Amino acid sequence: EVNQAGFTIHSAIHLGCPDAHAIAHTHTVSGMAVAAMEEGLLPLNQASMEFYNRVAYHDYEGISLDLDERDRLVASLGQKNCLILRNHGLLTVGRTVAEALYYMYNLNKACEIQVNVLGTSTKPILPPAEICEHTARQFEEPTFHNQEVARIWAANRRLLDRLDPSYRQ
User: Where are the domains of the chain?
Assistant: First the structure.
């Protein structure tokens, strides 16, 4: 049996984004919390600065049962690898499963940090826009990016090997 909402979202990306060979879509508590925040993802730390001006947003339209939403999902994502589905969750795409996982792992970590920071009674420090943009460009540097993707992928494979090696069969 096919999950219709999942089909709508994933088929939209597969049909409309030729470079997106892999998709990760989650409903983590922190991801859904940030998806419900008007300001979206804030550049509160190095983890979130990776995504500075590099996250797209898609407004909530209800449960994604209507195939007409697919074109709007693709338009919302544009040329970005990360999409915050307002009032819903997170979606990342990559050229590989490893890259989609990398973006999701780091985006969710940035959301977790934001929820924790905003849960304190102190005012957060927002770095200047130039620093945020510089940091985001550093993350995009191909050698660094590829090394980080490989590192996160290897770590998650080791974890999966420990938890349930049967996936290799």
Answer: 4-168
